[in-house]
Amino acid sequence: MAITDSRVREGELTLDGDSYATQPTNVRITPSHDSTGDRLEVLDGSEIQPSFKRRNTLNLEAIQDFDNTAGLIALSWDQDLNTIPFSWTPDPLGPTYSGDVMVMAIEVGGVVGERLTTTAEWEIIGGVTVTPYAGP
Predict the structure, then answer these.
(1) How many helices (H) and strands (E) does the chain have?
(2) What is the pLDDT of residue 124?
(3) What are the phi and psi torsion angles at 75 (to 5°)?
(4) Tens-digit pLDDT profile for residues 17-27
(5) Mean pLDDT of 5-15
C-alpha cells in the first residue's frame, strides 16, 4: 500500500450553517474512551466486562475575531451552552465529519499588540457522521 500524506488545508468548517473556515489554524475531532466498572471474574470462571463509551470533541484553535459581530467569538458567546450543527471537511478531497456540538463561550483577549488566538473544546452530542468524498 502506498503512503497517504493527508494535510488539513483548503477545507471547510460550518457551524450552525455558516462558514468559519477563515479563522481556524488547527481543527481536530478527538475521541476519548471512558469505561464503567472493572473486569470481574465470578466463582464459575465467567467474566463480566466493563462497559465502554466513546466521547468526541471538536477542538479548535483560531485567530481571534472579536471585531467581527458575525465571527467565531460572537457565535461562541451568543450560543453558549446551546447545541448547534457542525460540519468539517479537512481538505477538498477528504471526508466530511458532521454532527451537533455543545458550544461554550471561548476566551477573548490577550497580549496587547500581538496576534491573538483562542481555543475551543466543544463536546459533540450524539455521534459523528462521516461522509466520504463523492467526487466532483
Answers:
(1) 1, 9
(2) 98
(3) -60, -45
(4) 999 999 999 99
(5) 95
Amino acid at 78: D
* Residue 84 and residue 68 in contact, taking contact as beta carbons nearer than 8 Å: no
> All 3 cell numbers of residue 90?
479537512
Residue 14 grid cell: 460550518
CA gap 122, 88 in Å, rounded: 14
Over residues 28-45, the mean pLDDT reads: 90
Give the C-alpha separation, 4 to 36, whole Å. 36
Query: In what helix (H) or strand (E) does residue 13 lie, and over which residues does it extend?
Result: strand 12-15
pTM of the model: 0.86
Q: Helices marked H in 1-136 — which ranges? A: 72-78
Minimal CA–CA distance to 25: which of 58, 57, 63, 59?
Answer: 63
Q: Which three cell numbers stand for residue 108?
A: 477573548
